[in-house]
Amino acid sequence: MGAAHNLLAAFVDNSLTHGNPHGIDPLGVLWPRVVDISDRAIRKVIIGLGGRENGYPRETEWEITVASEVMAILALASDLQDLRKRLGRTVVATTFDGRRITAEDLKCAGSMTVLLRDAIKPNLLQTLEGGPAFVHCGPFANIAHGNNSVLADRLALATTEIACTEAGFGADMGAEKFFDIKCRESGLRPDAAVMVATVRALKMHGGVGRIVAGRPLDPALEQENVEAVRKGSANLAAQIENVRIFNVPVVVAINHFPTDTEAEVAAIREVALAAGARDVVVSRHFSDGGAGAEDLARAVWAAAEEGAPEFRLLYPDDLPLREKIETVAVRIYGARGVDELPAATKALKLYEELGFGNLPVCMAKTHLSLSHDPSLKGRPTGFRVPIREVRLSAGAGFITPLLGEMRTMPGLPSHPAGENIDIDSDGNIVGLF
Which of 69, 238, 242, 260 is deepest in the core (most CB within 10 A)? Predict the structure, then answer.
């Protein structure tokens, strides 16, 4: 995917170098480059320095590979020919007179499809207990649409009685995008939703402890605190309500850890049922494997057999782009409204003029809060969502607003995990776990 994406970037700059036959405005190039390493130093760069043979000098950027539109295209394609079509309509730049330039215009879509000919095939894996699992594509829900491929879902549905597909990073992002983008595109309709919650995460949303990736768990999160769990469960209630907006029944799975107490679990159950969950089940697969998830499996099976009422999307295709963005912010995040920066307003106007006003929106925001601000825990209210910029993914078929300080190229922390990885004297890798 990275090779296909960067091939198209090379074609763009090659066209600029060789006489610019398409009349591409160097300031109108929309296609970045990608790399699968978090490197904040290449978020914004100048390329093409060093004379004519080294390209046309211009500003550009790098994104993390999972943010690539090629990743999203692969995940939403229905077959190889659909993949070819989507790659061809990908918009890479605008011209001096306002026309759009696509991968098809640059005659690059065919080569990109060849690179992805095998990548479009879902990977069939086996769980530790022998169950089948399709693993395919990896668009993160905070910066992309956050779901595995349509093809993997269709294969799973064709080979088994029930398929459980992942929509990552919370019902405010992964689930909303699953419904409004993936279901809209594929025509698939879910019978039920499984929402995973943990005592420690809800305790954190209740104002106790702090979770930092790569660091030991805060001891406060392992101490019983029913009040904090109940307070933090307001976040869970909001997420349940978010899924119910789409008319899909919800089964809450409490991912149980040994430090969880019965009183804390009871508090979650009470809040979840009051918020409209169909069932709440403690799942001990963490410690007991498949046997620990049998009760959850029965509850999900029952919900799926009962089926959902008539599935509904959050907004219609013909709603203006700005109103789609505001609908998600208000109804899903609980915001009072949105505030566009001038660059976002300009981009929305351009995309509608280019004929993309009917596309759904794929909000890029933090996964650490219902809002755009990672510091706002629980169920924040009274906030407005700033839209910093808006990007076009014509091949994938959506518009991506960037909320607050959300970046499509992450940065490494002060002590990257790679500091702990090494090779011992016997050639064994150490420090990965």
Answer: 69
Q: CATH number, domain at 56?
A: 3.30.1510.10
**Residue 171 in contact with residue 196, Cβ under 8 Å?**
no
* DSSP string for 244-260: HHTT--EEEEEE--TT-
- Which of 73, 94, 115 terminates a domain? The answer is 115
CA distance 31 to 106: 13
Round to whole Å and give the CA distance between 365 and 208.
23
**Where are the extended beta strands (E) located within 218-341?**
250-255, 279-283, 337-340
CB distance 65 to 5 below 8 Å: yes
Q: Which residue's entry shows tokens 């992805």? A: 116
Residues in the chain: 433
13 CA to centre of own chain = 29
24 forms bridges with which residues in the sheet?
95
- Helix, strand or coil, per DSSP, at residue 317: coil
Collapsing DSSP states into helix, strand and coil, what is residue 364? strand
Percent helix, strand, coil in the chain, to 5, is 40, 20, 45
Q: pTM of the prediction? A: 0.92
pLDDT tens column, 39-58: 999 999 999 999 888 999 99
Identify the domain containing residue 104 by its residue range.
2-115
